[in-house]
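[job 4471] stage=fold_predict status=RUNNING
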Amino acid sequence: MTQGQHFKVDPDEQNAVTLEHVSALSTGDSFSFLEISQYPHVDRSAGLYGEVAIRWSHNKLATDSITLGPITDVLLTTNIEFGSETAEMLLIGPSIDLLLPGFDFFQLSLTRRESFNRNDDMSSEGWQITPSFSITWPIGRSEVVLDGFIDWVFATDETGYAENLQINPQLKYNLGKLLHRPDTRFYVGLEYYFWSDKFGIASTPDFKTDQHAVSMLIKYHF
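[job 4471] inference complete, writing structure tokens
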């Protein structure tokens, strides 16, 4: 659950509840989430956005594993984006897992974006690079986690859709461990959300779409 301000294009103040699911599969792994946003003080009451991502692992599917330097696996990423205010998009492309010092995990993908519904007003077809990561630092009886992702749409097919960059880290303290519950992951912290040319809308002096938003965060792992 998050609560923050200084969002662009969307209403300035937002509250959100996000449900996430992560799973290791015999063929790879999966990550999905559904976010419901609520906008205080405006007529537009709520928004919905979600993603379902499945990665197909070479090392789990093939008899011979791939390892090369820091690369521990090569995968095929498939991701579906959907929502009440966005086009339905399919992302597909290669991904690699990297073993880097200090990181719990580091993943890097290159995907092609293709539209399901061919809505030219909302289409964001093109190419995207996405690194995602997690770092944990032990502190006293507990720990601090820094994790997040970067989405860089560096090439677009639609003339009206601008290249854009999202940077979304979360800095979280595990309150569960502090309360002497070592197996509980109950986090409190902050989320920073930078998005240049949000929704592919080029920022202008009259309509600024470069977003710098900070939210308070509460997160519990079931």
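[job 4471] summary: The two ends are 14 Å apart (CA to CA).
[job 4471] exit 0
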